[in-house]
Amino acid sequence: MTTTNRWRALTRHNLFWPIAVLVALLLVNIPFTPDFFAIHMTDGHLYGSLVSIVLFGSPLILVAVGMTLVIATGGIDLSVGAVVAITGALTCSYISDRKDQDALAGVLLAMGLGLLAAVVCGLWNGFLVARMGIQPIIATLIIMVAGRGVAQLITDGQIITINSEPYKLIGGGYWLTLPFSIFVVAAVVAVTVALTRRTALGLLVESVGGNAEASRLVGIRSMRIKIMVYVFCALCAGIAGLMISSNTSAADGNNAGLWIELDAILAVVIGGTSLLGGRFSIGGTVVGALVIQTLTTTIYTIGVPTQTNLVFKAAVVIVVCLLQSPEVPRQGLRRPREDPGPGDAARGPRRARCQDGGVVMSATTQTPTTPDKIEGRTPSGAARLLGDRRLPVLVTAALFLAMYIAGLSRYQNYGFGDSQVFLNLFIDNGYLLVAAVGATFVILSGGIDLSVGSVIGFTTMLTAWLVQDVGLPLLVVIPISLGVGAFGGFLMGYVIHNFEIQPFIVTLAGLFLFRGLCLVISKESIAINDSAVSSLAETRVSLGLGDLSIGAVVALVVLAAAFYILHYTRFGRRIYAIGGNEQSALLMGLPLGGTKIAVYTVSGFCSALAGLLFMLYIQSGDPLHAVGMELDAIAAVVIGGTLLTGGSGYVLGTLFGVLVLGLIKSIIQFEGTLSSWWTKIATGVLLCAFILIQRVMTTRKKA
Known about the structure:
This protein is mainly α. Helix content is 69%, strand content 4%. It has a two-stranded antiparallel ribbon. Strands 3-6 form a two-stranded antiparallel ribbon. Strands 4-5 form a two-stranded antiparallel sheet.
């Protein structure tokens, strides 16, 4: 074998680029800290930058190892951050209630309760994914949304502090001169590697991820495998929760493990495991987690402002993913591929991924047709009802009506029945409606956009900075902000299509990038004292029974435009076709690439517009504005009846989804005795209910 061939073989190894990035990040520190690799002994404990990287990266490594097995089965777990919070909250709450917090038996019992709660969460996720057949990203979204509320319910919304020496050992203690958490991580990784590489378990996991149906047909109990990996992932998250709360001697239900699920998924992808499932690498995942932690350490070491941390993280994510993309040769970027014409499509796409939206698409009419009609049967009334794609929208509308009537009966004496209270649902949630409309376009196409909240926050910061500090007129700033948002969406769509990188990862990088740019502009809030902004924010449109703000009017106009585009234009029909079955859309010669790029551009534009409306609503910019709002937008879309698998749903359903979420907040405010975290719990319960309804419908359509 020649040197060139050896080099090519080496660069094609799945661990080459992650290790190369890790080594490069480590070497960057040497000019700034010559003793970066030095390790010294103090008071019987080893200290040094390398030790700190492994120490602070331990919780992420644990969560990422569990996530690896879930992703290997073709799934994903968005709930691990909430599981971290629940485990820490339950454990610390139990310890804080004991008279003797140093009693070993009490500490072990508290840890057992916390880990038991984590296992229950894993069983729930596994049940929904394996038994109910619900898409993993949807199933785990339930606990991701509701879990934070549960954690805050356990801690009563407070940060619980404890003083337990035995408990401190897990995350902040030392053993044999090294941090004890390193030994915990090493044990978990070693056991995982032994079980997956020394037994048949690893092959079974990869088989289920490669083709679950084929695995079932050859006798592999794929259902049990899936439940097992979700339980294991939750258990790893629970141990990480113990480690985090132990290190700080406190439990924070709101912030503990916040967004750790995103870093864990990044670590898995950086380590070379595909989000499509199949073959996996535990070693690669560990390297990926160390890359993320080393990046953070490097930024602090070289003196780069901390606010750019997320920007650098986004850059590293994109670079590593591009290096691993099959569309990027190692010597440079290839010319972007063009969409195939009808003749090229007939030969079959190179990597078309089919996504079943619950309908059968006719190649000639592009009209959704149910299996009953194809076979010529006359379905019963109940079957027709369950097979009607409008059912989820009708259910959401009925739920909204029932909740509103319940509010009228309970809070009539408090003015709940006033027409302005109803109109306030549009005023207070206009920005969310616009963001959810943009998310609807993406989800209908079978994609996902996690950058929504960050784009909204960045737009508020950019607008506030340009108006307040630079002094530009609002009429000049508005098109700039909208253009930046749309261009960001265009770039994400371009990368997703032309380099075949999963939308989850690309938009996650967008989340980091735009949130980091918020901090680059300013780490502090920027209040807007501008007459044009104040005048526009205070403008009301009278409807006789009450008033609507400009933001609410704009939101309704965007909703009407989206309804027309999706249902009365070719572009809208292409979105439904691609979301229903991407391969069929290619075979019909539809412009797949242009449509995908366009929907992400629309989402970016709507997110920026939502940011402008949010800026008018609060008249300020803040780097923490709209954190997590992408989840609210996705929740509204799902509650409104749109399938996250794509191809089925209505933008009017998104409207009712937003109104339901807004009504929950209003009812909690009128009740007065309920805390804000009940909003998350109620949203999670509604998500669960509507996901199950959608599952019943899709099961009926496939029967």
